[in-house]
Write a structure and sequence with these properties.
The protein has about 2000 residues and is of the alpha/beta class. It is about 25% helix and about 15% strand. The protein contains 53 helices and 58 strands. The strands form 14 sheets. Strands 38, 39, 42, 43, 44, 45, 46, 47, 48, 49, 50 and 51 form a twelve-stranded mixed sheet that branches. Strand 40 and strand 41 form a beta hairpin. Helix 10 packs across helix 11 and helix 18 runs parallel beside helix 30. The longest helix has 25 residues. The termini are far apart.
Amino acid sequence: MGNSYAGQLRTTRFEEVLHNSIEASLRSNIVVPRPVFSQLYLEAEQPLAHNGRTENDDEDDEDGSESNSPPIPYQMKPPPEGCCTTDGYCQAGRDLRLSSLASDSLDVLPGFMLIGLKSPALPENLLVGAVDHRFLPDERGHNALLGFSGYCMGCGEKGFRYFTDFANHINLKLSTQPKKQKHLKFHLYRNNQGVLVKGAPICWRGHGKIDGRIRQLSSSLPEAHATSDEQSTSGALMHSSHTPSSYAAASHANGAPQISDTPHSLTNGIHAASSVAQTVINHSGPGRPSATGLQTNAGPPKKRHKGWSPESSSSSGLLENTGKVAPSSSVLPSSTVSANGARLDASATTSSSQRSLTTHSPSGLSVAVPDQLLHTCGLQPVIFKGHGPLPQLTGNFSEVLVSSLLQSCYLSSQTLPRVYQHYGPSPIQPLSTEMQILLTVYYLVQLGPEQVPLIEDLEQIFMRSWRESHLSEIRQNQQPQIPATQGRHYGIEAPPALPGLPQHLGLAPQQPLTPSQLPWLAQLAASSCGEGVVVLGEQVGSLAQGLQQMFRKLMEGRFENTNYIVVIVTASGHETQSCVVVTGKHQCRALAENMFSPNEGLREINHQLSSGDAQELIQFCSSLGQEGDMDSLLDSATLDSNEPSPLSSSQESTEEKTVKNTHSPKDSHSPKDRVLPPKETCSEYAVEWRDIRPIQLAVARKLLSHVCAIADSSTQNLDLVSFDRVNFLILVPPSEVTFQQTVLHLWSSGVLRELGSVEQDCVSQREAERYVVKMDQSAQVRVDSLIQEAHSNSYTLYILVHDHAHWDVSSASYCNTDTGLGLVDQLLNSRQVRDAPNILILHVTSFPFALQTQFTRISPYNEIHWPSSFSNDVDLYHERTRYFGVSELLESTRSGSSLPLMRCDSSFESMASSLEERFPKLHSAVIRTTVLIHHYCTALMAVSGRIGGSHNLHKHTSVETLGIVQALLSAAQQCPAHHGHMILLRIPSLALAAWAHRRLSRVRRQLGLEESFEIILGNPSQPLNVGHSFIDQIKLWLKIQESDWVPRTYLELEALPCILILSGAEPQGESLPRSLKYCDLRVVSCSYLQRTTLEQELGLAAYLLKAESRSPHNTGPGSDLLESDAEKLSSTDNEEEEGQENESSPVSSNQPLQSSPDVGALDPSPTQSSTSTSPDAPKCTVDTTPSPSRAQTQFPSQSSSQSFIYHQPSLHHPSQSIAHTYSLSQPIFQQQILSQNQLLAQTNSQPYFQTLPPHQVSHPPTQSLAPVRPRRHPSKSTSSSSSSPRASSPHLSCSWARGVSRPPSVLLPRSLYDIITANDGSGLPRCTSFLPHMSVAWASSFRPLLSKMMTCTEQSLYYRQWTVPRPYHMDSSNRTEGRSDNFHPRRLLLSGPPQVGKTGAYLHFLGILSRMLIRLMEVDIYNEEDINLNVQFDGVHYKPPNALWPDPDVMKTLPFDYIVHDPKYDDISLVYCPGYRPASDANTVHQEEVCLRRRTTRIKLSKYAAFNTYHHCEQCHLYLGFNPRYQIYESTLHAFTFTHLLLGEEIQLYFIIPKSKEHYFSFNQPGGQLEGMRLPLAADRSPNCIKSPIFTPTTGRHEHGLFNLYHAMDGAAHLHILVVKEYEMAVYKKYWPNHILLVLPPVFNGAGIGAAHFLIKELSYHNLELERSRRQEGSGPISDVWPFIILADDSCVMWNVVDFDARKYMLTHGPVEHAASLKQVLQHMEGCPDLAHYGLCGIRKWSSRVLAGPNQRKPFSRGHVHDFLLLNVDRSQNIQYDQNRFTCHDIDFTLRLHSAGLLVCRFNNFSVMKKQIAIGGYRTFIIKTKMTDVPTSVGPSQYVCAPDSKHLFLATPAQLLLEKYLQHTSHKLFPLSTKNYEHPVLSVDCYINLGPEVTVCFVSSRPHAVNICTTGLLFSGLLLCFADAFVTPSFLKKFSFLKGATLCVISADRSSLRQTVGRLELEEEWRFRLSDEFQTANAKEDRPLFFLTGKHI
């Protein structure tokens, strides 16, 4: 019998065939196992050719048919009649051949690329086409969008959306379906001669191709690790196949897979990863298969054979997260379990397989655990509950651990999401029990011998298998939802299309796996890995029987090489049951420690130390073999130095560190003497952590903008305007260092002085401590005090900053008060804090995941993410530093050009593993810590030179540790001030850390190194303890004079050579100095694999590098989701600043990143040379020599070549692989040390230097090592010479100064390193797919993976959707029935990478928030001096000067001031006034200042200010529409119609009147027709009422207009009407619901301010007449109705009054003004006894200098008034505003009003302040063309054109074009008037601005008009604008004109223009030409204006 494995029978034994088949099945990419016999005998595969393709697979066969039958002929669409059908030409007849177009100039639209197309009719030529680059693949064949978009390069026809249509157009005459993959063949480019030539082929067949029609969305395949003995024997490379992902999140991921460059490892006789769709395997043995004929599969087979799975290859469910990363998952499966190992309860389902999971153990079934199990087997087995009840364990059950983790995974994987539970006629079912068990066996088989099963991997396998079995249903279910979503979504999704998918595999229901098949299928799978996995399934009647059999064989030693035992029970008539027993020693230890909670694990460690269990281990490690005992060697070293005998090891707990003050003569050259407090100083030392960086300023502003967004929202949750100051309290974890560090930042930031909390001269750190509190029991009192203070000070905004917010998320109800946990929940989530309107909470954390759950209290809109500093290699913030974080550390492991900064220590791991087997009862942390401290002690002994035969000690430590110690001891020798490095030892257990501190301190003392470096124990609950000598050094460096000063933070240890032992279960926010050189994490716990836990440990190594060390090829901090750093561009998060992908190594690939020259630890051997990370730094420098003379003595004639000899044996070239780096063995290292000692002994150097590698002794750098670039920093004194020996002092280079430009190195445990450096299916590091925090759980197993393309905002949304808080999480109670969220409105979250500067950012935020509150009380007020002030009048001044009201008789005697003084009109024409003489330099000054920004001043708002819509105070609620009597927006629309003669038709206006304001109007009946506004009588007197209606015309300022007059009116009743345009009615009604709106007719939508004032005035007069008629009908007085209205600008903010009681002071020192309410101003003006005599009144515009002039001290004056007018509509009834005017309408109106004889009075004792509002207003003009799709810039000369000419018409009102044209070109139109004040232009009946260089003389043609005397005045021009009947020829003959003066006549049309010329007899004195007639550039339908120019004869 044989199998048709390759389409032919194999004559071999059945067993071998069966074994081969199951091996092939395991190596295949099929997730769902197929029936074996069907696989063996029924499937005929395509035979493989030598090139890896099937024999029948043609290159161009793209039809994807399921069979080998010929394709159906393709019927092309018939071409249209008359079109060209010639090959090589398009249907329009244009040539498309490349040979014809090669030299032509082709214009390609942006985003399109020139492509060469292959035509079957023209095999020798290519056709040229243009295709959108988004629909083409990149160079690796990925990222092509579905579909097609292109256009023809021949005829230019665009819009081809289907390649079929495009193929028809270019005459591709095909017999098969046109496909872009088949015919789009080559890129085209122009060579150096400019000729278009064929370029690179389009990579349609790149790795990962499935089919050209689908997007390539798979995740990347991580590199597999090959063992050393198999690297040379593995033959072929196996590449990943690119397949679509099953997850919606992955649908937006970068689809480029990472192709493995190394052979996949063979573990347990199987391939750890396979990416070939089908592989031919020939076995050379039962457990050692050899791969032959491996094919590189670039996609699915062309003829889709049944063995191909749609999600095979790198996306394969079995291999995606498991076997492909063979040794990289040796970590623990705690990501989805709580402390007791149980997952959240899953909801019940109806599946029978699920019911079997929850049944209880039957009574009477028990299993006896054998005695002496742990002693006999050396392990503690772990039993994972599976399906069915686990029997009760009896006997020695304490030596067996039981976990429900696997059972929880099974339950979760069978709990379908709600969307799938009821799905049509074919419901989706979860995986069966049998399938889950079989997949579990498959997974265990894939694990390596040192790997520990990860529940995330198994869970993803279940999900992928489930999706493959229900692809069609999932696709149908998800398809309707896709159009409704936008952007990235995170639902469960299948690939949108799977061409060629076998029907039986994915699109049809699977044949169920029967229980009878399960045992032998599982055994077949397990047989492939030898004894690694054993399946007990046959003849096992129950789980109890299987466990009993397992225990028996285990005691017999038959499972010595077995890691996993799977017990399967498939009894007939019963449900399938299973369990998994872990018997591997490494796996059992890891799982057992994982079952402890972190606190329980620490307690276990403490117990083992206190009980003496670890004493045997310590004694074992102290033995050095033939070299003797470590303690005896130390004692001998101490005795040789005449020092007292050290304390015995039993007395270590009580020993104290002592400082030796005396030394023997022979120790005069010991290292202690060289590190005494220095007399020299280091010029390179500088502490920069106090500085605020630009990116911190940007984050502070983002925080401020979010606070403003809360205040601006309509929810009324924060009223910023009501606060006048800021107070704050910073909550930090209970770490003394973190507390002092925050105090230090606060004290040095200056925030306290800025907030005014303390006096500037008495700020100290002690006072700053009042604003920082540790979250311990003392925090309760501080927070309660703040709450009480907040209640009593409602005008103070309190900020509660919760720093390191992820530290305590425990629920107060679940925590014991003694533990200190739950305080955050108790304090910050209390009702008092939540309901306080003036308390805002800011959570700050580097790991926000625990706060981003389904029940979070923080709105996603209130999250602020730290932005990326770089975008497309552009420094966005111009930082002097560059952040180097976890992403960059990971990138260094993948660069391959240098030794990675993050690595593991193989020697250490080997020794720790052997000791773990020797001491199975001890906790791994105890063992690893003991080994680590032993390595450090041995390295200190070896490097110190105090131990005889120290070279033999090197083999008892590791290369890494030795290099670290060498760097520590030698660094201080490089600097005159003895600056050095910090070494961080992270030991979580406090007891172990204290023991390590005692042990290292003892060794240091016995070696006489007490003054060389400090050893600091970092206990979170205790302050720092630093030796006095080192404190003196630090004080000297920091120039601190205080005698009692001691360092309290790690930052203050900058440049101190020390070992910092950081203890505590987790870091609590401590910042480390930049002198951190090594971050030793080799003993951190690997038991708790949550993302937060891993990242915060790695975050200790985060670093701020100097910006100059940045490689030009580096893109800055990456945006991998491993860090919460970057918002890639903006989101809320200013998603415009949000971060970019990490595309390259943090260090350029051609520039290795290695350690500083004084340290060899970054190299595999300390003897290796290294290069600088900075391109500006010297590549190699002299680092350590005793003195200059000594260095020169040792090598008097050393040359560059001699120096190179010392380096050559151990040079680490960039081309060397990392694998080779770690292959250095200890004997080689020992020989190197011996040879070095022999060389150095010849120079008679000191013992300490005998052990130094040669590169630490004086030698010149050589050009052979690396090219040296010149330094750019003159402050650094290091020489950059690359050829000559150094003759200067070696102290010119400071090792610390060089180190701050290099990130620290990180040493990790092997298991942790493998996990962190491996990628998951989405291309992200594996740890990102872990549970984010211990206190949360996954909401469902049916979740997608995180995508590599997610921004931080999308990542937050992911966790908010897919995680739920556990019951002991503080947010678990944050659920409200009927609501999807329960966000706290005043709660923000700031997240950013660790050590990036978040503290400085939020401290600066507090400062700018305080400044903003002050600025909110301030506004920008126009503060400009009046212009044109040199007017000299001969008339009398107003008497008396202190009069309260103007006297009409006296006012008539005052001359009218024609000159305009308002600075806003500094660019208009002067109005001629006989008594005025302009300044000679006026024009020059104006030209210089015309483009400058108008002068403003910041003024604090008074209590009488007007406000915009952003003002929300409690008093304004009723005024703004929040009236409890009426519903908001309850208003009615009323039409009001009246007739006006000028308009010739009825005018219909609309009033929107709120219910609360209807009493101001009269109706014919309640709720009926509007009749008019009610007006008071002139005799009415009311102290709380304003009689004049206030009209405010406005446009474009619905948010910023100052319409809230509540405070300005000081409670007075008033009628305020907003006059708005019709198209803005809705938005004004929305923002001002309680304001009356007067809506202009639609015809005025494009009109200017003149039209608004015209309608207001005419409406008011019409209403006055109606009111008089109404009162006449009621027998009331007619003429006594109040005739005044107020026309107010929408930017009037405050009003002022001259203090009448300070006249005496005013006469001597100038006037005194103070704020006044609008009520006071209006009531004073309305109270004027003779007010009815005036036609127009106004007040002056405020200026800080306007009262200084003598003319301004007059209380009243006659002249122009602006912005705030009191208009008498009765007396001015015959003078109208010009409805067509856009500019200067008020000047024109005032001049005509004065010429009519009406009095104009300005109240100079009152002033109005105008706020600068840059948005909207009537002065905003947009001039654009009618062709909106053509962007143009239109100049003033194009505003007019000749009549009937072809000109570009403008979509702008004709009047505006005319006014702007005259303003900008009148110096050409009136050439004699330019800068000629003595000869102005005569303007009749109107004032028009002719520009600042032309003077206008206004005269009125009305009879009895008041005009200036023009006798003897010669005019340079005449302007007649719409001349009416009052302008006559006789009137014009009164005026004299210069010869050549210019005439301009303006009319509405050409006929009226000619009539005006004839009627006024202008041709008698003026000469006209046909070419002098013009019109505005308007189309005929837009009614252009016409004007004619002429010259005076």
